[in-house]
Hints:
The protein is of the alpha/beta class. A 6-stranded mixed β-sheet has the order 1-3-2-4-5-6. Helix 1 packs across helix 5 and helix 2 packs parallel to helix 3. 39% of the residues are buried.
Amino acid sequence: MTLNIFQREEMNTKNTCILHVEDDENDVILLPHAFEEAGISNPVHVASDGKQAIDYLAMAARGTDPRVYPMPCLVLLDLKIPFISGLDVLHWARQQTGLVDLPIIVLTSSENPTDVSLAYKFGASSFVVKPFEREERLRLAQGLNLWWIEKNLCPENSGDHSRSKREPLVALHCA
């Protein structure tokens, strides 16, 4: 299994990574720039297809080599990815004991109401349409930082073991 891994030298006080499941190289390159501008210093691990995402999350949930496969504090999941769809990755993750409470945000170009409905049915924490403009990406990164990294509390069995409760899940953007 090959993963593209982008890590930053400084790390957020939570010391946990973000898993970005994305096959579009432009999004893989542009989102970390927005993260940097928004003050997100968590390392970002990238899985470029559904199989890599499942492999990574399975290893993280089992605690297999946590330096290579750390449990993420957040997953950003595209729906239209190769081999295994994002919806199938989400459905699989919610059936895994160690991943049930992991915040998974669907970050996709789809605005299809069926995709939105299925994502929430399968356990998405939020559904966000990918921004294409630089300023929109920055606002998205700022929102992710404020709510999901700084404010959100995770259960002990998910990415951040220093906290024991989690605030209710809400969408970052609802039409």
